[in-house]
Amino acid sequence: MDKYKGESFYNSVFQLYELYEATKYAIICAENFDPQRELYLAPLNQLRSALDHIFRAVANEENTENEIREVKEHMNRAGYDALEILAGNIGYSILEKMKPYRASVISAIFLDYYKVICPKITDIKINIAEIRMRPKDSETSFLYYLADIKTLLSFDKLVSSMIPSLEDFSRREKREKIFNLILKITIPLVAAAIGSLLTLIISKQ
């Protein structure tokens, strides 16, 4: 590979660095939010294919442009695979955190859970499914969807921050229910006792 072609190849690969960093970030996040800490093969296989095309580009100078295009497509696919996994993992994480609380508690304290968080996670999953249905040559760069990762992470952080408030409200609601139940039981008994006492007093007069 002569100097000019070598510089051209380097520049082509260097332009993919930002996409690679975003894809790697998505994979790390997906793994960190997996309760089983599993290693996901789908995005890693895409990165392996990307690396294979890089070396093919080195070995075949005449086909460098096509090989670099394939590298980009595989990196995008790796990013989408990781984002899909991350959306599922964070959705599951949030669901598990919210499971102990009744809908009435969530609605009273954390209405954005129903109005913002759940719909947005669903939208992200739908968008990923639509991406997978597109032809390869129509792919939008995964960098465009990097904001979705930050959104998902912020949702998980927000839900975690709301747990103390949900716990406090839930405890107060339970105490109120117990108190109301006690009143419901004791008031008729007290009324009956007072009635019996008044009847006894009147009968003695």
Keywords:
single chain, 205 residues, 7 helices, 83% helix, rod-shaped
Structural class by secondary-structure content:
mainly alpha
Which geometry do the CA atoms define?
A: rod-shaped
Biggest sheet: strands, sense, closure?
Answer: none
Following the backbone from N to C, one meets helices and strands in this order, namely HHHHHHH
Low-confidence stretches: none
Account of the protein in words:
The chain has helices at residues 3-14, 17-32, 41-59, 64-98, 103-109, 112-133, 146-204. Helices cover 83% and strands 0% of the residues. The model has no long low-confidence stretch (mean pLDDT 83). The chain has 205 residues and is mainly α. It contains seven helices and no strands.
Topology summary:
Elements: H1 3-14, H2 17-32, H3 41-59, H4 64-98, H5 103-109, H6 112-133, H7 146-204
Short summary of the structure?
The chain is mainly alpha-helical. It contains seven helices and no strands. It has one domain.
